[in-house]
Amino acid sequence: EAQVTQNPRYLITVTGKKLTVTCSQNMNHEYMSWYRQDPGLGLRQIYYSMNVEVTDKGDVPEGYKVSRKEKRNFPLILESPSPNQTSLYFCASRFRRFGQPTNTGELFFGEGSRLTVL
Amino acid sequence: AQKITQTQPGMFVQEKEAVTLDCTYDTSDPSYGLFWYKQPSSGEMIFLIYQGSYDQQNATEGRYSLNFQKARKSANLVISASQLGDSAMYFCAMRADRGSTLGRLYFGRGTQLTVWP
Lengths: 118, 117
Fold this sequence. Notes:
The complex is a heterodimer of chains A (118) and B (117). Chain A is mainly beta and 118 residues long. Helices cover 0% and strands 48% of the residues of chain A. Chain A contains no helices and 11 strands. In chain A, strands 2, 4, 5, 6, 9, 10 and 11 form a 7-stranded mixed β-sheet that branches. A 4-stranded antiparallel β-sheet of chain A has the order 1-3-8-7, with no helix packed on it. Chain A is globular, with a radius of gyration of 14 Å. The termini of chain A are far apart. The relative contact order of chain A is 0.32. The model of chain A has no long low-confidence stretch (mean pLDDT 93). Chain B has 117 residues and is mostly beta strands. Chain B is 0% helix and 52% strand. The radius of gyration of chain B is 14 Å and the shape is globular. The N and C termini of chain B lie far apart (41 Å). The mean pLDDT of chain B is 93. Classes of the chains: A mainly beta (118), B mainly beta (117). The interface between A and B is medium-sized, with 27 and 24 residues.
């Protein structure tokens, strides 16, 4: 089954304790991205990657790191989490190139990771 | 900068009625894609429908249709014959297909739809 898998799905941690949220996709997608969702703000992009070893900042990258050593994996790293990083996080992927009618370039999302930083 | 506006934080509709969720966008790029996603209370993001900026006809997918008015820069989602299971948060999103933000997807703040019996 084609899917994007995130782990953990739920996590409660404390300020300053480093954590990693893993993301893996099995669709051979070049493009991967992380979003955070906060009430009233919609989804905001944290980082994205166009391919292996190519990453770039989104709109809210502060406090986060990413790496793309393999095509299928795109982990999100919080080196020193703070309470303002309490959020619902989504990993998503798609093919780098898109063009109708067979490929609209839609993003495929993981199920989300709900993170609470105390 | 890209901008997506969803002006309705919440909408209510009776079962079996049609409902329109508003979305306007702002871009200077001639080529772009518009998406709608559904997020039920369980949290996952479900792709509903896509419209390309050069598409001549409005996109349709089952009970979902996208009312695309390019001159007005609007991409409203129309759900016909609402069902209780349509109760969810709905997000409009836009992807720029050219320029410095090529490929990035920008989301609106969402509209919470409640379908009542």
